[in-house]
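Lecture notes, continued. The same structure-token format from the folding unit now serves as the input rather than the output. Read the line below as a description of shape only.
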């Protein structure tokens, strides 16, 4: 699966239906252009929970708050030559709100 695209629920249910019908995971990977780990994880999730929906809160926790994101965005636009390390250093050296 290229670019980590999210499949809609209809497509996920179609994949699960084909797995239940006996189609191999390798065939499904080739047909839908998916990685084997994606199909395997989807199948395990369906077998464990009976559902294909993602649980809320899955994924990597955010490292910055919304205000910090805005500050970084503005600072990066003003100082286009700055590296990520410099922006990070500036973020934690200076207060976000100076008023």
């Amino acid at each position: 699966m290229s670019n980590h695209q999210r499949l809609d629920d209809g497509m996920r249910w179609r994949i699960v239906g084909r797995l239940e019908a006996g189609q191999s995971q390798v065939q499904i990977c080739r047909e839908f252009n998916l990685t084997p780990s994606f199909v395997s994880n989807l199948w395990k999730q369906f077998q464990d929970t009976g559902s294909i929906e993602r649980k809320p809160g899955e994924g990597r926790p955010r490292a910055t708050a919304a205000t910090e994101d805005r500050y970084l965005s503005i600072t990066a636009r003003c100082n286009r030559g700055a590296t990520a390390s410099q922006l990070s250093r500036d973020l934690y050296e200076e207060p976000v709100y100076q008023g």
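Point for the exam: The chain has five helices and no strands.
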